[in-house]
Amino acid sequence: MSIVQRLARPAILALPPVDIAGAPVPGTVRLDANENPYLPLVQGQPGINRYPDPQPLSLRRRMADLYGVTADRLWVTRGSDDAIDLLIRAFCEAGRDSIAIVEPTFSAYAQFARVQGADVVRARLTDDFRFDADAVIAACRDARPKLLFLCTPNNPTGTPVDPADVRRIAGALPDTLVIADEAYGEFSDQPSLAAEAEGNVAVLRTLSKAYGLAGARIGCLIGSPELVDLVSRVSPPYPLPGPSIAAALDALGPERMPIHRQRVADLLAERARLAGALRGVDEIRSVREGGNFLFLEVADPEDLARRLAAAAVRVRFRPNAAPGGVRITVGTAEENAAVLGVFGLAADRPGRRASVVRDTKETRIALAIDLDRDGPRQIDSGVPFFDHMLDQVAAHGGFALTLACDGDTDIDPHHSVEDVAIALGTALNRALGDKRGIGRFGFALPMDETEAQVLIDLSGRPFARFDGSFATPAVGDLPTQMVPHIFRSIADSLGAAIHVRVSGENDHHKVEACFKAFGRALRQGLAIEGRGDALPSTKGML
C-alpha cells in the first residue's frame, strides 16, 4: 500500500473524480456549464463569461518544464498557500491527525491545520536559527504527524534546509509526507527537490515571488501522480481565474525568462547591499539573508515601528521568531533607500533601471536596462545582425541590456526591428528618470574608411535626421532601409533629438559605425556629471 493510500483520509479516497464541465473547445457549441452566452461588458477580457479550464494543460506543461518534472506530477493551485490547504484537508481528520512544522516559520501551516481541526507538532530551529534535522526527526518520531512542512529557505529567518537533510528526514519518517516548501527557491543556492518529489516527498512552488505574479495567485504542488490525483479530489471545481491563467502563460513566455533571471540577480545584489549597510547599524543586533528578504533582530522594535510609520515604510515584525525580529522584503533601489533612511543611512543615488514589456500582434518583447552597470548584455531580437548592432550600442553606451523578442521574422524582420527600437527608446527614457546630472549631449566616430557622426540631445523633444545612403539592400539579415527608421523610432520613444550622418564605401562599416557612434553619443549623454543633481537645462526642465 502506498503512502498516499496509508495516510489519506478514507472519505477522500472514496470520493469519485470531480465531475465538472470540460474546458472550452474551439469549434464546439458549449451548453454544458450553465454559463451566460453573452460577452461580458468588460473590455479586454474575451471569454470571461465562460468557466476557465480547471487545469489548463498549456500552463501545467509550462510549469512542469520550468521545474523539471512531468505534467502528471504537478497540480496548479491558487498560489502555494492553496496547496498547503488542500494537502491538510486531504490527509488530516479533525481531532485525530496532526501536521509538523519547524518554528519559527510560515504561519499558514499551523493556521490551515487549526481550521481543519488537526493538531500541530512543533520542532524548532536552533537558538541561532540553524536547521537541526535530528531535532525534527526526534519531534516527529513518536507523534507520527501525517504531514511535515519544511520551508526552504525559511520564512521569516531565511534559514536554508539542505536537500540531504530532507532526504534523511523522509527516510527516517516513512509514514509522514515531507513537504519542501520552495516558495523562495529561485533566491536560494540550494538545488530544488522537485525532480525527487515522489513517495513521501512533495514540493511546493509559486509564481508569486520570482515571477512577480502575487496578485494572479498561481502556484503548484509537485509529487507522485497518485498524490496529484488525490489532491485533485479536494480542489475546487474552477480554482484558476482566466485572467490569472493568461497572466501566468504570458509571464513564463520564453522571451520573458532572461528578464526574470536578471531581476532575481538584481534582487540578490540589492539584498547583499542592504545587508552590508545594515550590519553597521548599532541598534541592529543581527542581520540574516534569505529568499527575497532580510531578517533583523533589533534592540527596540517599538521605537523602530514608530520611525517606520512616520516614513510610511511597512515591514513585518516577527516577535514570535525573536523578541526584536523584523522581516524586510528587498524592494527597488528607491524603496530600499527609504528603509536605509529610517536607520539613518544615506542611500546611494537610485539606480537608473527600467524594464519594458511590449506585446503586439506581430511581436512580444521583454527588455531590461541598467544605465549604471556596464553589462551584462544578452540580446535576442530574432535578427542576428541587429543583435550585433544593439550589443554595440550597449557596449559603447556603457550600460547593461537584456532583450528578447519573439516576432514574425518568418514574414519580414521589419516588425521586430521597429518594435525593438521603440522598446529600447522607451526603456532609456524611463531609466533616465528626472535626468538630473546627465551630460545630455554627444559624439562623432570614424571607422576605417567610414565616418559616422551621431549628435544627441536628451531633451524630451523627439526629432530624427539621417543623412546617408546605402548601396546594398541588407547587411546580414538587417535591411539597410530600416537603419534610418530605427533611429527615428528610438528618437520618438526616448524623447530625444538624434542626428545621424554617415559616409563611406562599405555598407557593413557604415551601418556598424552608426550604431557604435550612437552608443558613444549615449555614453556622453547618459553620464552623470559634477554633483549629479543639476538639471542640464536653462529652462528648468527637460
Explain this structure.
- With 542 residues, this protein is an alpha/beta fold.
- It has three domains: 3-23 and 49-244, 3-Layer(aba) Sandwich (Aspartate Aminotransferase, domain 2), CATH 3.40.640; 259-342, Alpha-Beta Complex (Aspartate Aminotransferase, domain 1), CATH 3.90.1150; 354-526, Imidazole glycerol phosphate dehydratase, domain 1 (Ribosomal Protein S5, domain 2).
- The protein contains 16 helices and 21 strands.
- A seven-stranded mixed sheet has the order 1-7-6-5-4-2-3, with helices on both faces.
- α13 runs parallel beside α16 (507-526).
- The radius of gyration is 28 Å and the shape is globular.
**CATH class category of the largest domain:** Alpha Beta
Mean pLDDT: 91
Number of strands: 21
For the largest beta sheet, what order do the strands appear in spatially?
1-7-6-5-4-2-3
Strand content: 15-25%
| Major pleated sheet | 7 strands, mixed
Q: State the share of residues found in helices, binned by percent.
A: 25-40%
The general outline is globular
- The total domain count is 3
Just name the CATH architecture of the largest domain.
3-Layer(aba) Sandwich
Distance between the termini: 73 Å
Which topology of the largest domain does CATH recognise?
Answer: Aspartate Aminotransferase, domain 2
Please tally the helical runs, counting DSSP H or I stretches of 4 or more residues: 16
Features:
542 residues, alpha/beta, Aspartate Aminotransferase, domain 2, Aspartate Aminotransferase, domain 1, Ribosomal Protein S5, domain 2, 3 domains, 7-stranded mixed β-sheet, 4-stranded antiparallel β-sheet, 21 strands, 35% helix, 21% strand
